[in-house]
Amino acid sequence: MKVESLKEELIQSHNRIKPFIHKTPVLSSSLINKMVDANIVFKCENFQKMGAFKMRGASNAILSLTDEERQRGVVTHSSGNFAQAVSLSALNLGVKAYIVMPENAPQVKKNAVKTYGGEIIECESTPQAREATANKIKEEKGASFLHPSNQDEVIYGNSTAAIELLQEYPDLDVILVPVGGGGLIAGTALAAHYFLDKCKVIGGEPMEVDDAYRSLISGRIETNDSFQTIADGLRTHLGDRNFPIIQKHVDKIIRVEEAEIINAMQLIWERMKIVIEPSSAVAFAAVLKCKEEFKNKSVGIILSGGNVDVKNLPF
């Protein structure tokens, strides 16, 4: 795809999904700004339909299918947010959705999938088990597979959160996002590159699942042996579609400890009075950890989602 047409594809993706998503608010906190000595704005995708940015990529992916493909349904694997996004997007468009979820996914997310009409198929909590189960359903049902993070249409849909943020705040020095499967940071990196090239993109990643950090160092896609992080949405690894984008356009990735994630999450809850999930707090945790790096800068942070079990908070 030519450079000029990729920018046009991002614009078309944004226009395509506008009727099916919320243009989420951008909030700030003077207390948090003083705390880090920077001007921070939060793009609140926790207020997105189904509670996370994943609605953007899922909507764009399903809307990009042919009528014949939609009739056969869609299948995906997800720990929760993309599962909900595909279920709701499919419901809006009259498409059958098969959702492969790890057995240890939060019950609140399983309940939401059922509410949106998705058919859940449970599997072991490993990337290999997810992929094998989804492939089986794809073959049996003829459903189109939608990858949560490693698919062009999903990446382009994800880019629209940063596009909206940059339209509202065109003077940002840097945008930070959490890194799991790589779909959000890849989309954000494309948005920054094509709409505000001087704006850096930095990822935040849990130390316990730092495959993206290691991948940028080694130059190849690394995986994790452990998945022991409170940020359940970030227990996945990069893919061959998003990794080259990340290599080319992402400045760096900052790793954070579990206690730092919890602290950042609690600060957002207490100071901004909004609900975010642990995965969503990772980018803010990175700013808190590296305050000197962001001092006196205009910083955008994408709060990726707010689907958390309020009966099981870490603080």
Structural features, described:
With 315 residues, this protein is of the alpha/beta class. It folds into 2 domains: 3-53 and 152-303, Rossmann fold, CATH 3.40.50; 55-145, Rossmann fold (3-Layer(aba) Sandwich), CATH 3.40.50. It is built from 14 helices and 10 strands. The protein has helices at residues 3-17, 30-36, 54-63, 67-71, 81-93, 107-115, 127-141, 152-168, 183-195, 211-218, 243-249, 258-272, 278-289, 291-294, and strands spanning 26-27, 39-44, 74-77, 97-102, 119-123, 144-145, 174-178, 200-206, 252-256, 298-303. The protein has a 6-stranded mixed beta sheet with strand order 1-2-10-7-8-9, sandwiched between helices. A 4-stranded parallel beta sheet has the order 5-4-3-6, sandwiched between helices. α5 (81-93) links the parallel β3 (74-77) and β4 (97-102). The N and C termini lie far apart (47 Å).
